[in-house]
Every structure is written in structure tokens, then in C-alpha cells.
């Protein structure tokens, strides 16, 4: 038996015992993380450099890419380190930092997706008021509110979790530090109830956002179906489907991972679901948006073509020998 004052590290859940599988997981995580870094980096560069993307949706998409980068940089590097060096440990302070930043970026991402839903609602249902309701100041305030709410949520949970006495060992049933798994190690009844209260408040806030999203999309689909031309309907759906796909991936995987029935729970399924909602979305989100957003595709194509042309010109200049 140990307590939090003497605890200096946690044991994370290993994906596999065989060295070959550990190295396979390392290369798989490396490929996914590089894809996420490249894709989100391209979106950040495209939105920042192309004035056609200086719109409310482009502004929120930039912030969404930042949260995706934050999520994958919080959990994946430590997992890759453990795969490579055949270890499962994480320090006490490292675990606290990982839990804080993971909760921060995940919460901020969900609130940003809610704000982006409002953007789509105004664009389709109240197009004449779009410039008024979603001016630059309003967008900045909404993005700041999403980040601030995520920060406060993460700070409260982290401060409470790591103030609890932990006397149920130090083995976590997850490959990264997550609230439910650390909470299982607590032996403080009052602290446990306090954290449950914080979780209930967070869930209620998230459920309120979810109800807002559902209501908004009901109104959006009703407005789209009233558009007389099929071309107009297709254009309207094209602006909504990427956001709806990203939101569905985020909500469905996270909800199933945390609320699945114990009867179907298993080690391999738990790890697979964790990867699906922690590692995969940051790599898929840019792909989903770039496939359906024509302006974003044009900006990415222009940027990549420009970089390629500059590289070719530089090489030509380097190899040019005047006669």
C-alpha cells in the first residue's frame, strides 16, 4: 500500500509483451503522429497564408488544428518512448502534466466544435446576419471562451485528482494518464465524491453543448432542404458534412470508450478504443476537412505548388554554371 506523498511514478498499460510487437506499435504511432503533424501543419500554414481562408470557419479550423496537435503531442510521444525502451513508467509530475494537457486540449476541441456548429448554423439559417453575428471580435471571443473553459476544466480536475491520497497501488489501466484510471487508485471517499461532482458538471456542460449541436443541425437540415436548386443544396451540405463527420468521430469514439458496458470490456478493446479517440482523430480531421472544403484544397494546392516551384528554382540556381 502506498500514498500520494510517497508515490513518484505510475505504471502505464503495455500494448504488448513481445519486443517485435512493441517496435511495430512504435512505428505505427510514429507514422500516425507524423501524418497528424504534417496535415495539421499544412492547414495552419494554409489558413495563415491564404487570405481566402481568413473567414470565421478558417479561423476556427486553425484553432481546431492547434487542439489536434496538442492532443497528439500530449499522449503519443510518451507512449512511443515506452515502446522503444521497453518500459511502462511515467513520473508523478509527468502524469499530472499529461492529464492536465490532455483534458485541456480535448475539452477545448469539443467546445470549438460546438462554436463551429454555431458558425454553420448562422451561415445557412441566418446568412444576412452572418457578418454581424460572426465578426472578427465575436469569433475571437468565442475561441477565447472555448480555450478558457477547457483550461478551467482541466485545472479543476487535475488539481483535485492529484490532491487525493492514492493507496491502491500505482498501476493504471491505460496507456496514458486519464482521470477515471487515476481515480480508481484513490482511497479518499470525500475526494472521490468531489471528483465525481466535477465530472457530473463537465458532463452536464458537454451534454448542453451536444443538445445545442443537435438543435442547430436540425435547423440547418430544414433550411438546406428548402433550398430550391440541387446545386445550392449540395454546396450547403458540403460546408456542413466535414464538421459533422469530425464531430461524430470525436463524440462516438470518446463516448463508447468511457461508457461501454463492462460485459464487453476487454484489454484489447479498451486499448483499441483509446487509440481511436486519442490518436486517430488528429490525423483524420485535416483529411476530412480538406476533402470537402474546396477553398482549403485550393489553398493547399497553391501552397504545395509554390513550395515545389521554389525548391526547383533553388536547385536550378545552385546547379547553374555561367559560361
What's this model, at a glance?
The chain is built from eleven helices and two strands. With 323 residues, it is an all-alpha fold.
Low-confidence stretches: none
Average pLDDT value? 80
**Main sheet: strands, sense, barrel:** 2 strands, antiparallel
CA-based shape: globular
Count of distinct strands: 2
Beta content? under 5%
> Can you give the helix content as a percent range?
over 70%
Number of helical elements: 11
Distance between the termini: 81 Å
Give the structural class.
Answer: mainly alpha
Strand order of the largest sheet: 1-2
Order of helices and strands: EHHEHHHHHHHHH
What radius of gyration results from the CA coordinates?
22 Å
Explained architecture:
- The protein is an all-alpha fold and 323 residues long.
- It has helices at 19-49, 56-85, 92-125, 130-133, 136-161, 179-183, 189-225, 230-259, 267-278, 280-292, 294-319; strands spanning 9-11, 89-91.
- The protein has a two-stranded antiparallel ribbon with strand order 1-2.
- The mean pLDDT is 80.
Amino acid at each position: 500500500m502506498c500514498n500520494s506523498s510517497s508515490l513518484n511514478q505510475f505504471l502505464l498499460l503495455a500494448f504488448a509483451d513481445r519486443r517485435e510487437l512493441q517496435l511495430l506499435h512504435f512505428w505505427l504511432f510514429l507514422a500516425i503522429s507524423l501524418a497528424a503533424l504534417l496535415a495539421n501543419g499544412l492547414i495552419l500554414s494554409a489558413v495563415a497564408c491564404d487570405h481566402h481562408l481568413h473567414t470565421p470557419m478558417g479561423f476556427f479550423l486553425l484553432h481546431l488544428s492547434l487542439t489536434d496537435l496538442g492532443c497528439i503531442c500530449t499522449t503519443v510521444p510518451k507512449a512511443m518512448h515506452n515502446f522503444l525502451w521497453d518500459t511502462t513508467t511515467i513520473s508523478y509530475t509527468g502524469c499530472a502534466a499529461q492529464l492536465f494537457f490532455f483534458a485541456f486540449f480535448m475539452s477545448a476541441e469539443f467546445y470549438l466544435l460546438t462554436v463551429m456548429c454555431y458558425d454553420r448554423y448562422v451561415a445557412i439559417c441566418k446568412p444576412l446576419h452572418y457578418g454581424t453575428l460572426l465578426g472578427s471580435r465575436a469569433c475571437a471571443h468565442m475561441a477565447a471562451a472555448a480555450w478558457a473553459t477547457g483550461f478551467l476544466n482541466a485545472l479543476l480536475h487535475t488539481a483535485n485528482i492529484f490532491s487525493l491520497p492514492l493507496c491502491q497501488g500505482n498501476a493504471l489501466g491505460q496507456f496514458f494518464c486519464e482521470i477515471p484510471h487515476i481515480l480508481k487508485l484513490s482511497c479518499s471517499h470525500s475526494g472521490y465524491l468531489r471528483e465525481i461532482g466535477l465530472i457530473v458538471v463537465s458532463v452536464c456542460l458537454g451534454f448542453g453543448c451536444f443538445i445545442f449541436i443537435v438543435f442547430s443541425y436540425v435547423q440547418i437540415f430544414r433550411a438546406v432542404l428548402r433550398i430550391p436548386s440541387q446545386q445550392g443544396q449540395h454546396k450547403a451540405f458540403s460546408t456542413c458534412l466535414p464538421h459533422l463527420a469530425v464531430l461524430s468521430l470525436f463524440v462516438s469514439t470518446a463516448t463508447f470508450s468511457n461508457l461501454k458496458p463492462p460485459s464487453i470490456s476487454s484489454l484489447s478493446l479498451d486499448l483499441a478504443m483509446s487509440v481511436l479517440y486519442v490518436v486517430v482523430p488528429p490525423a483524420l480531421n485535416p483529411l476530412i476537412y480538406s476533402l470537402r472544403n474546396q477553398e482549403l484544397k485550393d489553398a493547399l494546392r497553391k501552397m504545395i505548388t509554390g513550395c515545389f516551384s521554389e525548391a526547383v528554382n533553388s536547385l536550378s540556381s545552385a546547379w547553374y554554371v555561367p559560361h
